[in-house]
């Protein structure tokens, strides 16, 4: 696991040079495209595009750091989502406890891919945008500074949270607890004993930061200024138009009946 305290990767790529606000517009297009459709083939398009872009900008190490979260959410979603739709189509699996139909599998796969697309799209955004740029971008479009500060703090603490999880995992392994396994159910069960110490460590870190901010007289009500103000150029406008066009086209196609299970 990488020891970098941040998910931001300092590269000189096209996405890195864009303004944070234009990347928010592009991210909106990816999220709407992933949310609008239910067919796995249609949801795969924004997921694959986000993943290819993530690898191209040097975000593969970040994806590896979060891969266990993506895999866990995908597997849990794939197991749970069939309960939220009606059966239909051919029966793919029949057991004494019930049967799995084609519609249930496609529905679960589409929803799981949607969650993965949200994570990979968000990871692409934080890989190409520093915390300072994100806070400044959100503040420049009128979002209250208290919310911007909360988002920036969460992004800053998230790598620390991952590091704490890895430390707890190693400590539990030293005590004889085996974490891992090829069976997905065994893999998920092996992480259950890590939840309480990991969350207790996260709460302790949050309390420590809150006391440090209070000791320094931090107040979110004052007007803020930012040292590094990014220009909003032609490329940014084109990216915003692209993101809005993708979002509008996705909604229109969905209303026409495309991409449904």
UniProtKB/TrEMBL annotation:
Q: Which Pfam families match?
A: CbiQ (PF02361)
Q: Where are the transmembrane segments?
A: 43-60, 67-85, 138-158, 237-255
Is Membrane set as a keyword in this record?
Answer: yes
- Indicate how the chain sits in the lipid bilayer: Multi-pass membrane protein
Q: Where can this protein be found? A: Membrane
GO terms under cellular component: plasma membrane
Is this entry keyworded Membrane? yes
Where is this chain primarily localised? membrane
Q: Which InterPro entries match?
A: ABC/ECF_trnsptr_transmembrane (IPR003339)
Q: Which CDD domains match?
A: EcfT
Q: Which UniProt keywords apply?
A: Membrane, Transmembrane, Transmembrane helix
- State the name under which the record lists this protein: Energy-coupling factor transporter transmembrane component T family protein
């Amino acid at each position: 696991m990488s020891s970098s305290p941040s998910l931001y990767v300092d590269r000189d790529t096209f996405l890195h040079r864009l303004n944070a606000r234009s990347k928010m517009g592009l991210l909106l297009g990816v999220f709407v495209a992933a949310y609008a459709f239910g067919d796995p083939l249609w949801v795969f398009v924004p997921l694959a595009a986000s993943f290819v872009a993530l690898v191209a900008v040097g975000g593969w190490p970040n994806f590896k750091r979060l891969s266990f979260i993506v895999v866990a959410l995908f597997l849990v979603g794939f197991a749970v989502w069939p309960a939220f739709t009606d059966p239909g189509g051919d029966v793919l699996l029949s057991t004494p406890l019930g049967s799995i139909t084609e519609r249930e599998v496609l529905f679960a796969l589409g929803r799981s891919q949607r969650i993965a697309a949200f994570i990979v799209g968000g990871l692409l955004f934080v890989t190409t945008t520093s915390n300072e740029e994100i806070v400044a971008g959100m503040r420049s479009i009128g979002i209250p500074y208290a919310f911007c500060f909360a988002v920036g703090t969460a992004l800053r603490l998230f790598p620390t949270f991952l590091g704490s999880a890895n430390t707890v995992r190693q400590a539990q392994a030293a005590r004889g607890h085996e974490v891992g396994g090829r069976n997905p159910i065994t893999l998920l069960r092996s992480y259950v004993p890590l939840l309480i110490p990991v969350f207790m460590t996260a709460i302790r870190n949050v309390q420590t930061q809150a006391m440090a901010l209070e000791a320094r007289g931090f107040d979110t009500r004052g007007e803020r200024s930012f040292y590094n103000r990014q220009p909003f150029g032609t490329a940014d406008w084109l990216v915003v138009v692209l993101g809005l066009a993708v979002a509008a086209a996705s909604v229109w196609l969905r209303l026409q009946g495309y991409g449904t299970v």
